[in-house]
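Continuing the batch. This is chain 6 of the set; chains 1 through 5 are on the previous pages. Same settings as before, nothing changed between runs. Recording input and output for traceability.
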Amino acid sequence: MTNPKSHGAAAFTLTEILIALGIFCVGALGLLALFPVAQVTERESAEETRSAVIASGIMDALIIPNDPYQLRVARAVTNGLLEWKRIPSSVATNLFLSYNASGEPIGELDENKASLPILNMEACAVVTFGIRPKTSTPGLVTAEVIVASPAAAPAEKRSIRRFVRLLALP
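Output for chain 6:
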C-alpha cells in the first residue's frame, strides 16, 4: 500500500498557484505599462529625425555657387523638380513653408496660415526659415530653421526644434 502523504508532496497547493499567478500578473502589467512610453519615445524620435533632415536639406542648399550675395530656399516640388526662392543675404527675411514626411517642401505659407492648423493631410511640419545679417560683422549671416510639428495642430500645440547656422559670405 502507498503512503498518501508522498503523493501530496509532489503537487502544488492552491495557495502556491495563486501566489505564482499574482507575481506573474504584476510582472506582465509592468511590461505592458512600458508600451505607451515606448510609443511616445518612438514618435518623438521620428519627429526629431524628420526635423533634422528638413533643416539639413535647407541649410545645405542655401548658398548659390555662382552668387554668394543671394541665398536660396526650396519652396515646393513641381513635377519632381524643386522650385527655388532667392533671398538677398543682406536683408532680414522670414519664410514659412510646409513640409511632408519625406522632408520635401509642399508650399510656401503666409505668417497667419503658418500659425493655424494645416489642413493638407500631406503636411507634417511647418518650417520657419529666417535670415539675419550680422550688422556688427559684415559678411556673416545667421540662418535659422525652426521646425514645428505636427502641422495639423495649432501653433501653440506643436513641438518646436530649432537649428541655427552661421554663414560666412565673401
